[in-house]
Amino acid sequence: MKENRIVKNAVILTIMAVLLSAILGFTNQITKDRIAEQDELKKQKAYTAVFEDASFEETDELTALAASSKEDFEAAGFSGIVVTEAVAAIQNGETAGYVLNITNSNGYGGNIVTAIGITVDGKMTGLSVISNSETAGLGANCSKESFTEQFKTIDSPEISFVKGGGADHVTQIDAISSATITTTAVTNTVNAALHFVYDEIGIQ
Q1: Distance (Å, rounded) from C-alpha 182 to C-alpha 76?
Q2: In this structure, are residues 90 and 57 in contact, taking their beta carbons and an 8 Å threshold?
Q3: Beta 160-162 vs 172-174: how paired, if at all?
């Protein structure tokens, strides 16, 4: 009797373990799908923010350039940066520019993921921070509109930052107060993006 009870309990425990594993797997899949859906919506919102009134189109050429961007950036001196996606911004049936989804691992807290819009003649249309792990109240201010707005007027193949204010917002941006590492990371991301469209895509 005792052995039968042991076998019965073992079977019950096995069944419960299988059921719990199935439930956890199902829940994880649902959660995973929802997270992926939210990430996609967040990305598309960022794309629209940096290139208004445009639709976005993937091309084989842009996909190939994005796939080799890490190596290209390393060669150009932009280490730790990669284009995870590059799309054409279409307006009135024509390519008006490009939106790049770029990850820079050199933030103070790790990855800073941004969407950057650049026209076919090299003018920036905006920068939106998709995600970051920077310090709240300091580097995390990189996602605030007061910081990102200044990129809408950048018209230069390379930018720098100025501490304490006074940037011309054409070739320079104002640094985030007390967040030099974050500012440097964002500046390098923009310069990598400009390099990508000028030297890899080949705009004039």
Answers
A1: 20
A2: yes
A3: parallel
Q: Are 169 and 147 in contact (CB under 8 A)?
A: no
Distance (Å, rounded) from C-alpha 70 to C-alpha 90?
26
* Dist CA 74 CA 69 (whole Å): 8
Q: Partners of 56 in the beta sheet?
A: 89
Question: Which residues, listed in sequence order, are joined to residue 91 by a DSSP beta bridge?
Answer: 94
DSSP strand pairing (124-132 vs 160-162): unpaired
Residue 86: how many other CB atoms lie within 10 Å:
25
Which distant-in-sequence residues (6+ apart) come within 8 Å of 120 by Cβ? Answer: 95, 96, 97, 98, 203
Instruction: Give me the tens of pLDDT residue by residue for the chain, a chain 204 residues long.
Output: 556 667 667 677 787 777 777 777 666 666 666 767 888 889 999 999 999 999 999 999 999 999 999 999 999 999 999 999 999 999 999 999 999 999 999 999 999 999 999 999 999 999 999 999 999 999 999 999 999 999 999 999 999 999 999 999 999 999 999 999 999 999 999 999 999 999 999 987
Interhelix angle 60-67/69-76, rounded to 10 degrees, is: 50
